[in-house]
Specification:
41% helix; alpha/beta; 9 helices; TIM Barrel
């Protein structure tokens, strides 16, 4: 069964987040995802607000830009949220939009090197390890979390190009694809994520393949469910719906997804 979710896009004001999260929670939607787009809502605080306003909803961040955040601080924030709301949090990291990273003075000459060092260190810290690291971009001296989460939440990496998809498959618990990817793009990217492993082993590996899917909220539950099925057939384990166009309010869209689209998946 495909896990279904909705997006709270950062072009909406943050004061609407609670009501959208509560609508998703009460209607049976599995997940709500927030973004950390510059210079809008921050991902961790938004996730904490949504989690605190709900009882069962899983909340993901897709994604936190590595150049924008010190890895120790990111680990501290993830650990705090996960320990407070255990089993309901999926943090994601990635390159970020490079033009935005340039605006904040965070652009690096090798984004791939940064993301690799960052993901390795972040995963180790969340697993309770003590680190002494002297990388090109990540430097830690005798750093360990006093309150590591046990178990840690799944760590996912946002990716577009094959090299980053492969990095996610190598180092993380899952990968996030943008709404521009499409079902064909998911199918083409999946071998890069699996690194030559058989596609049938995706669930066995405990890995997740999350894709943001742009949908017109006016198209109806059956049409949206059919689009979700295309992504699922391509290999997506989590399909997170982003309502675009002049559709219903996001609260109403979340209720439709939980009450109409999810049962249509059968």
């Amino acid at each position: 069964m495909t896990t279904l979710g909705v997006v709270f896009p950062p072009d909406l004001p943050p004061e609407r987040l609670r009501t959208v999260a509560q609508a998703a929670d009460s209607s049976g939607v599995d997940q709500l995802w927030v973004w950390e787009d510059c210079f809008k809502e921050a991902g961790v605080s938004a996730a904490a607000i949504a989690l605190g306003a709900t009882d069962r909803l899983t909340v993901g961040i897709g994604l936190m830009p590595a150049p924008l955040r010190n890895v120790a601080l990111t680990a501290m924030e993830i650990a705090t949220v996960e320990r407070t709301f255990p089993g309901r949090f999926i943090p994601g990291v990635g390159h970020g939009v490079l033009s935005w990273m340039d605006q904040v003075g965070g652009l690096v000459s090798s984004p791939m090197t940064l993301l690799r060092e960052y993901t390795v260190a972040l995963r180790a810290l969340l697993h309770g390890e003590r680190l002494d690291v002297r990388g090109r971009y990540v430097s830690l001296t005798d750093v360990a979390l006093d309150w590591p989460p046990s178990p840690p939440p799944p760590l996912v990496v946002g990716a577009v190009k094959p090299r980053t998809v492969a990095l996610a498959g190598e180092l993380a618990d899952g990968v996030i694809f943008t709404g521009d990817t499409g079902p064909d793009g998911v199918a083409e990217a999946l071998p890069h994520f699996l690194g030559g492993r058989d596609q049938a082993t995706l669930a066995d590996l405990g890995s997740v393949l999350t894709v943001f899917a742009d949908v017109d909220g006016r198209s109806g539950a059956a049409a949206i469910a059919a689009k979700v099925a295309e992504y699922a057939d391509a290999g997506a384990t989590h399909v997170i719906l982003h309502s675009v166009g002049d559709g219903p309010d996001l609260e109403d869209f979340a209720r439709m997804v939980g009450q109409d689209v999810s049962p249509s998946l059968g």
